[in-house]
Design brief:
Chain lengths: 111, 352
């Protein structure tokens, strides 16, 4: 029962994250004007001693990278949920094994 | 799938390795978190190799082209700026984790018998990682990297007998020039990776050979600690840590991408505010503080000799601290804390 509830919660959280990220990426895309073709090369006449900016790249690419980053984090969140489920299952099997082998009380590994 | 597995098994014979992993146990205690640092270092090393190969496809290690090729990577290659940023940040993350890993082992005294050789290879791996950082810093060939390399390669000069020779070997001449750049590139992309992979192989073998260490008190009192199977329980947890680290790395690389300074000019005077990478700051600051002459002797030479003695002490720590539970062991722990506080304090001072 408890496992069902937590699974439902995980699914709901994943769905919300998905929707949120879709909404955010859509809004961000909508804000991108067709790039006024920012120069690909950093200003050649930058004052001496000053770093050339690493981010001198078109707005579209910047936006794409931000959207990809949001998706990366979303994927990580989903994968972490799945990993957590697998870890719990593996720990349960391990505890059962210990119990059967009489190695002591079934204690949950803390880490 | 079964047939493929059998085909691989027939050719590679990985059965014993799989059996070993299935039996491998990971002890659970208050320092278990330190176990995650080792595999995370490997993750960042893998990222370094992949991004390094991508950068090497476009980088040109010549006086005329080095700086321009890095600018091209950052501005003209698709996502080149991101690849360079990930390479740079994962180096920082890797070195930071190597420090954490080594300090964790030092303060839990996990280097004690029979793990002395594991410690030795670990310290050598730290040395290789720092050498990667030092040689990589020059490659963008901008004003700052040239000046910092001049300072760095000048340090061994203070050593008696071999100092001048060592500096000449590092610089491929008397001064930092285009030849130094080529030499640093070769060392960075071929000599160091080979050395690092060889030492790493021995290190990983020794870790598997002796198993994971447990806290000193548990070993002394012969306490049977709870444990986890490495496969799949611990590995799944490690996978979670890797995912989070990957996300953090990508985020930092996107928002804090390193820039590049103007092309180095061999004739120009050193620019203001030369600073090495953060992991060399404490040495840099120490050198700045030492007077030119102490009791009629060369101050820089004394500073370099003290640092060399410190490094030798770190390398030989398991042999110096051979009775970790006794008073001697506690004194050494105190000294190690003092050394760490000094390095952190000097680094912060160097940053300011």
């Amino acid at each position: 029962m408890g496992a069902d509830v937590s699974r439902r919660r995980a699914l709901a959280a994943t769905g919300l994250l998905l929707l949120g990220s879709l909404l955010a990426s859509g809004l961000l895309e909508a804000r991108v004007q067709d790039p006024a073709q920012t120069s690909l090369k950093p200003a050649a006449d930058a004052p001496p001693g000053q770093d050339k900016p690493a981010a001198a790249r078109p707005a579209k690419e910047r936006m794409a990278v931000s959207v990809i980053l949001a998706w990366v984090w979303l994927s990580i969140a989903v994968l972490l949920v799945f990993l957590r489920m697998r870890v719990r299952e593996a720990d349960r099997v391990h505890r059962m094994g210990l119990q059967r082998a009489g190695e002591g009380p079934p204690r949950g590994p803390r880490h | 799938m079964k047939a493929l597995r059998a085909w691989i098994e027939d050719r590679l014979g990985l059965g014993p390795v799989a059996a070993f992993l299935a039996k491998k146990e990971v002890p659970c205690h208050k320092h278990t978190v330190l176990y995650y640092t080792g595999s995370s270092i490997l993750l960042f090393l893998g990222i370094q190799i992949v991004t390094g190969v991508l950068l090497a496809l476009y980088y040109q290690p010549t006086l005329a082209e080095a700086n321009a090729s890095v600018v091209r990577i950052m501005t003209e290659m698709p996502l080149g700026w991101l690849v360079r940023s990930v390479h740079s940040w994962s180096a920082t993350f890797m070195i930071a984790l190597v420090f954490v890993h080594l300090l964790g082992i030092a303060f839990t005294k996990a280097y004690r018998k029979p793990r002395e050789a594991t410690w030795l290879t670990g310290v050598l791996l730290l040395g290789s990682s720092l050498a990667f950082g030092f040689t990589g810093y020059l490659l963008p060939w901008d004003e700052l990297s040239l000046a910092a390399t001049k300072v760095g390669t000048n340090m061994p000069k203070a050593l008696p007998v071999i100092g001048t020779w060592l500096t000449r070997v590092m610089r491929a001449g008397d001064d930092v020039t285009g030849d130094t750049l080529t030499r640093f590139f070769i060392v960075h992309v071929s000599v160091l990776p080979l050395a690092l992979l060889a030492i790493l192989g021995v290190h990983v073998f020794l870790v598997q050979r002796h198993g994971m260490s447990v806290p000193l008190e548990a070993e002394r009192d012969k306490i049977k600690l709870p444990w986890l199977p490495f496969w799949p329980n611990f590995l799944l947890r490690e996978a979670g840590v890797w995912l989070v680290l990957l996300g953090v790395l990508l985020t930092v690389a996107v928002f804090l991408a390193p820039g590049i300074g103007p092309q180095a000019d061999l004739m120009a005077p050193a620019p203001e505010g030369i600073k090495p990478e953060w992991y060399f700051l404490f040495m840099f600051q120490t050198l700045k503080l030492f007077p030119a002459r102490i009791l009629g002797l060369n101050g820089e030479m004394i500073a370099v000799m003290i640092m060399m003695a410190g490094m030798a002490a770190v390398l030989l720590l398991p042999f110096i601290d051979n009775r970790p539970l006794e008073r001697k062991g506690k004194v050494i722990t105190g000294l190690a804390w003092a050394g760490l506080a000094y390095a952190v304090g000097m680094s912060i001072w160097g940053l300011m």
